[in-house]
Design goal:
two-stranded parallel ribbon; 11 helices; about 45% helix; globular; binds zinc ion
Amino acid sequence: MDDQMVVHHRVHRTWRGADRQETLDIFTEAVEEVRAASPDVEAIGFGIPALVEWEAGVSRWSNHLPLDGVPFRDLMSERLGLPVRVDNDSNLAMLAEQRAGAARGIGDAVLLALGTGIGGGLLLGGQIYRGSEGAGAELGHIVVNPDGPDCPGDCPGRGCLEAYASGNALGRAGTEAARSNPDSALGRVLAAGREVTGGLVTELAHDGDPLCREVIAEAGRWLGIGIVSLVNIFNPELVIIGGGASAAGDLMLDPAREVLAERGLPPNREMVKVVLAHFGSEAGMMGAALLALEAAA
Ligand SMILES: [Zn+2]
């Protein structure tokens, strides 16, 4: 990405279970492919789904990737021979949205990135809020049901928001709905031996499938429960929903807005808008590139 936020080259890799070394190799190879296509790269920014000690560039803990205790910035800088910056992917999504997206000109906003889990970003008083060590704003792990299921991944919590409203949660809820409704479109997918993913549920919902719409509406209501707490605490102007599962759009956001209108505190609930991320699922990548630009300056 250049300093006008124009993306010049994209590379995709899918992580399907790998140890720490292999995971770092995947990152390195992806970056090397970008550099081969655009040789004038001056710095690299990483947005990773981890609790990052911001000053030191160390990944302290990750719920879904083997990145606990990795001195990420120094290690990748040594591997790549370039200046490297690293932060939590959702903090960076918030940064991109502030700089040129949905939160442009806004002082206070909350971002939820619905993907494998749920990432969180906080913009407070015009600044990205990272907490004392940089490990804060883990908004996907606010508890919406203390008697709920174990949080997926390595989180010790129960009934966290990400157990109910992430892309993976949509897939799990869709699978359950398929089992209970074998004659539905989802039931036929499962019977054919295919995997019910959040993406598939979203696609069928957009096509008008009533069962998929209900699965998404239910996730939207849980999302709304989480948003109520965030809006009551932070009184933001915007709640920004990004990540792959935000492709459900208003099918998920309208039920969330209804819960907020019913249960949020006035005046907070009337002042806030719940909107989609301008940069969609690429917001984290754009924010990482913004960090790299700072390092290159
Ligand atoms: Zn959790």
